[in-house]
Specification:
mainly alpha, 17 helices, disordered N terminus
């Protein structure tokens, strides 16, 4: 691209731009835990411990299913942002339709495989009797919305790729709000119990799906629609599947790491396991803020790649790094100062409280060691450097396993938390180490 073309596609990368994407998405992420709390409270009010256990098991199954397909949102954001950077409105639509067809297709596959998934899930979780019945009731209803859920991933990815974080927030609030209200109404007022919670969740997905699709069609008005051969371009589909494959492998490796930590933690006894589970909530809270900043990094770096705008790309890295480490530092300090109070709120068990306080500094540290990992993930997703991100995640996972083998036997639970922080740091440092080379390769044509 010549200098005139680059100038035309350049854009101002400012703190305001970063926050306009990060803040709405952070708020959207923060509302998500309310869903679990509402469902638990509604089912808990029925007085059935079996229903509550069934809800917990079904929720884990859906978390695993949809976490595996989270790549749909990430790839859609990156490719949409790159098309935006090229000022190619037709390709923005084509990216949306490609990802939309893929997400609906994957949702139908999940729906078709749901009886098998349910049987395997109940078996692995060891659910029996009324617990298994409750799990099956919730699962059978909510899985009907699998195409809607994955379709919403594409819709959210599209609006984020277009830099419209406020619309993403609105869709999240609509989805979560309808879910919460209907879960309470159907589950408690109409006394449908766990089935009412499931129908409320399904309704929330459906309303957000319809609203999001209507918005996208409105946003594309006045722009020529891409022809079907363009949408189904073999080259474009191959690139989409390649990116999604790499992100999925990266996500599964991440799930494996946290699953391994929990599994090893069980060896230290129930009270220590409970303390670790409680402390992991602090990391999850920090991740809401870091994820929001990662979303900003995805959109801005993706747009910069599309525009061949290296200066904007580098400035996006600097600004998102400043905000990521700033937010991580605030979170870490907050946990160190008020973590004890939060621990007391979350449990009444004095042994668990004491143990959680002993390991609180490790949990607070995860915000800082994870800051670079979240930010670099956003940069690499936005630039569609998915293969490198996958490889560095696998390298970090290998380092994590080595740290576990080295530290857990000698340091016990301290070693477990040390290994987790090593894993988070390795994720960010390995990506940062190859960033200059990828930067030079990507922008060499614009030198």
């Amino acid at each position: 691209m010549d200098q005139a073309g680059r100038q035309q596609n350049s854009f101002a990368v400012t703190h305001r731009l970063v926050l306009s994407i990060a803040v709405p998405m952070t708020l959207g992420f923060v509302t998500t835990p309310l869903l679990g709390l509402t469902g638990t409270a509604v089912v808990g009010r029925t007085g059935s411990a079996e229903a509550l256990a069934g809800l917990a098991i079904a929720a884990v199954l859906f978390d695993l299913i949809f976490a595996a397909f989270g790549f749909v949102r990430a790839s859609t954001t990156a490719l949409t942002a790159q098309a935006l950077g090229r000022a190619d409105r037709v390709e923005q639509q084509a990216v949306f339709y490609r990802s939309f067809l893929l997400s609906i297709g994957l949702g139908v596959v999940v729906l078709a495989a749901s009886p098998l998934i349910l049987r395997i899930g109940i078996m692995l979780m060891g659910a029996e009797g009324r617990v298994a019945e409750a799990t099956a009731t919730y699962f059978a209803i909510r899985v009907l919305g699998a195409p809607l859920t994955l379709g919403n991933f594409t819709l959210l990815g599209s609006v984020l790729g277009m830099g419209r974080g406020s619309i993403g927030l609105a869709l999240q609030i609509l989805l979560n709000g309808v879910n919460i209200v209907l879960s309470i109404w159907l589950g408690l007022w109409l006394d449908f119990g766990i089935a009412g919670v499931a129908w409320g969740t399904l309704a929330g997905e459906a309303v957000a799906f319809i609203a999001g699709l209507a918005y996208m069609l409105f946003a594309f008005r006045g722009t020529p629609r891409p022809k079907l051969p363009v949408v189904l371009s073999r080259e474009k589909l191959k690139a989409l599947f390649s990116i999604n494959r790499d992100i999925m492998i990266r996500s599964l490796a991440l799930v494996a790491a946290f699953t391994l930590q929990t599994r090893i933690g069980t060896l230290f006894g129930p009270e220590l396991l409970a303390a670790n589970a409680l402390l992991m909530n602090f990391f999850l809270i920090a991740s809401f803020f870091l994820d929001g900043m990662a979303n900003a990094a995805e959109q801005i770096t993706g747009r910069a790649v599309g525009a061949r705008f290296r200066i904007g790309f580098e400035r996006a890295i600097r600004l998102t790094a400043i905000w990521s480490f700033g937010l991580a530092s605030v979170c870490a300090l907050f946990f160190l100062v008020l973590g004890g109070t939060l621990i007391d709120v979350m449990t009444t068990s004095e042994p668990v409280r004491a143990l959680a306080r002993d390991f609180l500094p490790w949990a607070a540290l995860t915000a800082l060691t994870g800051a670079l990992a979240f930010q670099m993930d956003g940069v690499f997703i936005g630039a569609t450097w998915s293969r490198e991100m996958r490889n560095m995640m696998l390298l970090a996972l290998a380092g994590y396993c080595a740290a576990l083998a080295l530290f857990a036997p000698t340091l016990g639970n301290h070693g477990l938390w040390l290994a987790l922080n090593v894993f988070l740091a390795l994720r960010g440092l390995t990506l940062a180490a190859i960033l200059p080379r990828k930067l030079a390769q990507t922008f060499i044509a614009s030198q």
